[in-house]
Amino acid sequence: MNKFLGLFCGVIVVSCLVTAMAGCGNSTPQPVESASGSISPKQFADAVHAVMMADRTVYAKHIVTRLKEQGSDVSASEYWEDEEGTIPLPAQMFRMGSELVAKNDGAGFTYALKSLWPLNSQNAAKSPQEEEGLKFIVDNPDKNFYGKEKLGDKTYFTAVYADKAVAKACWDCHNNHSNRPDDYPEFKEGDVMGGVVVRVPLD
């Protein structure tokens, strides 16, 4: 099994972890192989991004927004750990998944949600290429950013994907957040609110 085919199997495991949080089953991961028998770093990054965003969109639209529309006593809250009857915000659910992957030495990749307008400083760009990628997707919302970068003694393939406002709960939270400075953008559906950074080691 080549390096990225092995990583792709890891992605399926990650998907199971994330979807399990939304109650979506316990299927056994199976290897997936391209027609050529190998998967490039770009194909791998595109695949993991597709899985991540599908899970996040389902959580935002069909759990968080649906609970709100139905007037449920349970709602999404930034302070879900301290408040009764609350669940994590979509961005928090996404970050918890990325933290689990970061702790998994066998995952072979990392991902994070970043923004040029972070409400939380930990979501700001941490490398020149992350900042370049975030600016690119804001200027080109229908394109992805791909590049290589050296961090420490390792070289990484880094992909940045536009993170668009897909659920009212998302832009409402940002537009009304107490940390929002005066010059903060007023987001609406379809706007690029940030970017998903997928980083794959090449060494």
UniProtKB/TrEMBL annotation:
Keywords: Signal. It holds the Pfam family Tll0287-like. Residues 1-22 form the signal peptide. Residues 45-201 form the Tll0287-like domain. This is Tll0287-like domain-containing protein. It comes from Blastopirellula marina.
